[in-house]
Each structure stands twice: as structure tokens, then as C-alpha cells.
Design goal:
Elements (H helix, E strand, L loop, with lengths): L1 H29 L17 H8 L5 E7 L8 H19 L5 E6 L6 H9 L15 E6 L5 E4 L10 H13 L5 E6 L6 E3 L4 E3 L3 H9 L1 E4 L13 E5 L6 H12 L3 E5 L1 E9 L9 E6 L2 H4 L4 E3 L3 E5 L3 E5 L5 E11 L15 E5 L4 E3 L6 E7 L4 E5 L24 E7 L35 E5 L11 E6 L2 E6 L3 H13 L2 H5 L11 H38 L10 H69 L1
Parallel strand pairs: 1-2, 5-8, 5-9, 9-10, 10-22
Antiparallel strand pairs: 1-3, 3-4, 6-7, 11-12, 13-18, 14-20, 15-16, 16-17, 19-21, 21-22, 23-24
Length: 628
């Protein structure tokens, strides 16, 4: 009877194993291509903007994924991230409607594939544990021969992986260089200096923009923004007419993107000398509050911001260094790391910036990109005129404890600053032009980046310029240039591209394990503190007993001292035992959690998948039977 039961049990196990194998095969056949993203942050689900970009690909695009698979055999972290990249590219390819071809290449040393990677501009890097150079990048081509590359896929930038790949595809889909329309109240392009009677060089930031985009200067009295302008860049807009403000308002409401720099005190804006023989004074003010006010925002035109934490040093009286409050450089602690514009910036220098004030009922959705520290406060801009000693600004300076917004991304549906229609023409008296085509409100979300400073564009705050045999050599020491180029790069993309934000990474912490460790550490510290307290009490008690002795032989312990010391030793052993038990309980809790996860992942999930496949197969057979 026992042998019969054993035989039946073995047969049953074999049947279950066979059933499991068959169910897995059936599930693979029936559920191929079906994906269910159960991750908390929908890690494997693309953004809606990415789907839209893939649907709009006009002609086939080839993406070459170069990864040194063989050379990274001893670099498991990089290989894990490479799998994540492969999965993302597969997802892109699946939703591109056949317009995206992914070619995976392992560029072995001295091979034609390595030569091809070099031709694209990818460079192999040396990693610890590898003898051969490692290639890990993406190159893309379109049907007209344009090329775009991601030279190296840095795992630390994984949160923007989807954005970077989508941007590469979008660039290849629309190869024409975007047009930037510039309205500037400061001479940032090449010009003529009336004082020196010589031509002036353009600012370095202007040269960088011209290399990447089509930069077109627009007149400040414009009445309409050209239709082919992709981004309107306004630097220190001053004394704009009502007609010009209306043109800007309608451009933004109609879907145009804008990068706006306003400033309550622009040191680069040199005013004419107050009297003959006196130097020109800087500090012109600019604002765009007529338009911003309709959205619920304002940049205070009369006050600048000083920051005692980030203030930079300048030379004061007696050639002594003085920390100049309104001239400061912020670091990553106050720069938004989740927005693609500012995510990789390490530092930014500001000069006499204003701040963005947002009303509680603001129509615009405001995402701060850069803030001050909590040691900041406002300084009247008028106090900066003809200031000789920067130390004077410290008199009466009291940090408010508030973090002021220096730069922000503006989105959402907003109303027009001209609800009654366009303003009257200058030569038409009170007669107002017809309201044909007038936008009372933006149809879709606006896309604007607002910065309350213009001096950050000046060369002296972010780049060192040297003349080398007639050539200008530049060395950046702050991220101001990258900030501006990133903003333009993002704004010139489609609305779909702008909507793609940073994603969660595939490497997630074991939060439950961390919680267990925190609980154990808390108990450990409490027990350790009790031990220290008892030790201190014992030392106090021993000192009291020693002081009560009347004999001169103070080095010998009295019976009371020996008893107290023995008691402490016993207590110390007990407490140490408790500490070890706390550690053992922690390890056991983590092991139990790991066991449960293994059971779920290895046993339960495959079983559920198999059952789902069988159910789908049964339903299909029933449908076929009903048809016949």
C-alpha cells in the first residue's frame, strides 16, 4: 500500500511538471507581444509624448545601439543597465509602426564594427575590470543622411534616458535647424560701441546659440512675430509698445514658445553718463508684467535678491575680499534635478537678479527651476546705483527665511493680457483694429521659461575668454551657457518632447529592508544609550564610594566598590546579549522577507502566468467551437 502511494505521488508530480511546461509553452505562444507593466512608477510604459513622436516619424530611421557585450563581462552593473536600454529600444521599435529600425552591435576590438562606431563619433572608454575599450552609445541616421548620436549612455542619467532617445528621434524626423527670434534691450550680438568707435564682439552665449540654431534679430517695435519663429527669446525687454506686447501675447497663446530674461537691475545695461566726465551707470530695469500679470505672476521691478549663503567675493576697499550679497552662485541644492533643462547643471552664477512672485490663484502652472537659499532677502535696486563699497549692503540685511524663485517653467492654459482685443493703432486715434483671429485664451498649454536675471548671460559670470592669435578661446567655469542652450533646446522641440519628464530609475531601493534596518538601528541605539547611561551611573557611584574612604590606600577597591563593579559587568553582558539579539532579529526578518519574495517570484508568478495562458486557450477553443 505504501509503495502504491509513493508511485501515485511520483506520477502526480510528473504530471504537474509536464502540465507546467506545457502551460509555459502555450503562454509564450499566445501571450507573445502582450505586456503588462505592474511597476509602481510604470517604468516600462512610455510617455504619451513619446508615443506621439513615434507616430509622427515621416520616413524610416535607423538606430544603431553600440554596446561592448563581451568586454563588459566583469561589469555587471553596466550590463544590467544595458538590458534596460535594450528593453526601452524594443518598446520604441514596437510602437513606431515599422518606421524605426534598431540594430544592435557589439564593436569588438579591431573590427569593422569598432571602425563604424568611431565614424559615428562614439568613443570607447576604459572601465575598471576591462582590458578593451567599452562602447555604450546610440547613433541614428535618417533617409537624407543626417546623423545624431548619444556618445555614452551614463547610468547616472537614466531618469532622462527616454527623453534623450525621443529627442534624437525627433531631431532626425525634423532635420531643419530651429529659428530663434531675438528681442533684446542689450547689445548681445555684434555691434558698434559709440564710446570707443569700434565694433564689439558678440557675447559668448550669442555665438553658442548661433552655432546650434538660426538666430534672427527682431525689431523691438514689431507688430507680429514671424510664423517660422520656433522660440521667441527676449533679453531685457524695455519700453515695448502696446502693439509689440500684444504681438508677444498672441504668439505665446497661439502655441509659440518663449525664453524670457527680465531684470530689475541689469548691470550690463549701460546708461549714458549723468554728466560730462562721469562714467556711464549700469542698472537698467526691464519687466514684462503686463503679460505675466494676466497669468498670475510678477517680477518685482524695484528689488533685487541678495543671498548670504551663496554670495561671491569681490574686491572691496583696501583690496580686501568682500562677499557681495546680490552677486551669487547657486549649487545643485537649489537647482531642480527633475527637469531636463537643469538636471545636469552643477552651478549657476547670478548678478543682481530679481525674483518671480506667483499669486495663489495664478492661471499658469509654475515649476521652479532655480531658487535661492533660505538666507536670502530683497535689496532695493535703487541702493545699487553708484555703490562704491559692497560691504554697505550688509548693514541691516536680514534673511527672510524664504527661498525666492529665480527661474521657472510656465505651462498651462492662460488668459490674454488683452481681453478686449488688440490695442489701437498709433495713427488711428481711439479706433481699435478688428478682433479677427484674436485669442482670448491659449487653446493649449503654453511653454515658457522665465528667468529673473539678464546678467547671467554676460561673459564675466560664466566664461573666461582669451585671445589666442586672433581666436577667442573660451573656458566655462559655471553652467550659465548650458542652462540657456538646454532651455532653447527643450523649447524648440515639439510639445510632445517637452511633455516628457524625468522618469524613475530601474534600480529601486528595498524600502522594506531599509525600514527594518532603521527599526533595528533605533533599537540598537536605545540599548546602547542605556548601556552608556548605566556605565556613567556606575562611574559616578564608584567615585562617590572612593571619596567616602578615609584610609590612604585609595587604589584598593572596597567591598561595596567590588560589588558594584560585579553588578555592572553582569549588566554589560546582559545588554551586549540584547544587542546581538537585535542584530539576529534584523537578519532573520530580512531572510524571511527574501524567502517570501523568492516563493512569489519563482513559484507563484509562473503559476499565475500558466493559468492565464490556459484560460486564454480555453476561451479561444470555445469561440472556435461556437463558430463551427
Amino acid at each position: 500500500m505504501t509503495e502504491s502511494r509513493i508511485t501515485i505521488g511520483r506520477v502526480g508530480l510528473l504530471m504537474l511538471a509536464a502540465l507546467f511546461i506545457v502551460a509555459v509553452i502555450v503562454a509564450n505562444l499566445l501571450l507573445r507581444g502582450v505586456r503588462l507593466d505592474l511597476t509602481e512608477n510604470r517604468l516600462y510604459t512610455l510617455s504619451d509624448g513619446t508615443y506621439s513622436i513615434l507616430e509622427k516619424i515621416p520616413e524610416p530611421i535607423n538606430l544603431y545601439f553600440f554596446f561592448s557585450d563581451k568586454a563588459t563581462g566583469n561589469v555587471p552593473a553596466l550590463r544590467t543597465y544595458a538590458n534596460r536600454v535594450r528593453e526601452l529600444l524594443q518598446e520604441f521599435e514596437q510602437h513606431a509602426g515599422g518606421k524605426l529600425n534598431i540594430i544592435r552591435i557589439d564593436p569588438l576590438p579591431f573590427s569593422e564594427d569598432e571602425d563604424r562606431a568611431s565614424e559615428f563619433g562614439l568613443q570607447g572608454i576604459a572601465l575598471g575590470g576591462t582590458t578593451d575599450p567599452v562602447y555604450f552609445g546610440i547613433a541614428g541616421t535618417n533617409s537624407v543622411g543626417d546623423e545624431e548620436i548619444l556618445p555614452f549612455l551614463d547610468p547616472s542619467k537614466e531618469s532622462f534616458l527616454e527623453y534623450d532617445v525621443a529627442k534624437l528621434i525627433h531631431t532626425l524626423s525634423t532635420p531643419d535647424r530651429p529659428t530663434i527670434g531675438l528681442i533684446s534691450g542689450i547689445q548681445i550680438t555684434a555691434g558698434f560701441d559709440q564710446a570707443t568707435r569700434q565694433m564689439t564682439e558678440p557675447w559668448v552665449i550669442t555665438n553658442q546659440i548661433s552655432q546650434l540654431f538660426e538666430l534672427r534679430t527682431l525689431p523691438p517695435d514689431l507688430e507680429e512675430v514671424d510664423e517660422d519663429v520656433d522660440v521667441l527669446m527676449m533679453v531685457h525687454p524695455k519700453d515695448l509698445s502696446e502693439r509689440a506686447l500684444y504681438a508677444i501675447d498672441q504668439f505665446i497663446l497661439g502655441g509659440g514658445r518663449a525664453l524670457i530674461f527680465v531684470d530689475p537691475y541689469a548691470e550690463a545695461d549701460q546708461a549714458p553718463p549723468a554728466a560730462p566726465g562721469m562714467p556711464p551707470s549700469g542698472g537698467g530695469s526691464s519687466e514684462l508684467n503686463r503679460i505675466l500679470g494676466a497669468w498670475g505672476l510678477e517680477v518685482d521691478p524695484e528689488n533685487v535678491i541678495g543671498d548670504d549663503r551663496f554670495a561671491l567675493s569681490v574686491t572691496g576697499f583696501g583690496n580686501r575680499p568682500v562677499r557681495y550679497l546680490p552677486l551669487f552662485g547657486v549649487d545643485q541644492s537649489v537647482i531642480d534635478s527633475d527637469d531636463v533643462i537643469t538636471a545636469e547643471l552643477r552651478n549657476l552664477n547670478f548678478g543682481f537678479p530679481g525674483y518671480i512672485n506667483v499669486a495663489d490663484d495664478a492661471a499658469a502652472d509654475v515649476t521652479p527651476l532655480v531658487r535661492t537659499s533660505d538666507l536670502a532677502a530683497t535689496i532695493p535696486a535703487a541702493s545699487l546705483a553708484f555703490l562704491q563699497d559692497p560691504q554697505v549692503l550688509r548693514d541691516g540685511f536680514q534673511p527672510s527665511g524664504e527661498q525666492y524663485v529665480l527661474a521657472a517653467r510656465l505651462q498651462g492654459q492662460v488668459p490674454s493680457a488683452f481681453p478686449d482685443g488688440p490695442p489701437p493703432l498709433p495713427d488711428a486715434g481711439e479706433e481699435t483694429p478688428a478682433n479677427a483671429g484674436h485669442l482670448v485664451q491659449s487653446a493649449d498649454s503654453i511653454n515658457v521659461v522665465l528667468i529673473a536675471d539678464t546678467d547671467l548671460l554676460t561673459d564675466r559670470l560664466w566664461v573666461q575668454v582669451q585671445n589666442f592669435f586672433g581666436q577667442r578661446l573660451t573656458t566655462a567655469f559655471a553652467g550659465n551657457g548650458d542652462f540657456v542652450v538646454n532651455a532653447l533646446d527643450n523649447l524648440t522641440g515639439s510639445g510632445d518632447l517637452i511633455s516628457i519628464r524625468g522618469r524613475a530609475t530601474y534600480t529601486r531601493p528595498f524600502t522594506r529592508v531599509q525600514e527594518l534596518r532603521r527599526e533595528a538601528d533605533s533599537r540598537f541605539r536605545m540599548t546602547e544609550q542605556a548601556l552608556q547611561q548605566e556605565l556613567q551611573e556606575l562611574e559616578t557611584k564608584l567615585s562617590e564610594l572612593q571619596a567616602q574612604r578615609e584610609d590612604s590606600n585609595s587604589f584598593l577597591l572596597t567591598p561595596e566598590q567590588e560589588a558594584e563593579l560585579d553588578r555592572f559587568r553582569e549588566e554589560r553582558l546582559r545588554i551586549r546579549k540584547e544587542l546581538r539579539q537585535v542584530r539576529r532579529d534584523l537578519d532573520q526578518s530580512i531572510e524571511d522577507l527574501g524567502t517570501r519574495l523568492k516563493v512569489i517570484n519563482i513559484g507563484l508568478m509562473p503559476l499565475l502566468t500558466a493559468v492565464l495562458g490556459i484560460v486564454v486557450l480555453a476561451l479561444r477553443r470555445r469561440q472556435q467551437a461556437a463558430r463551427t
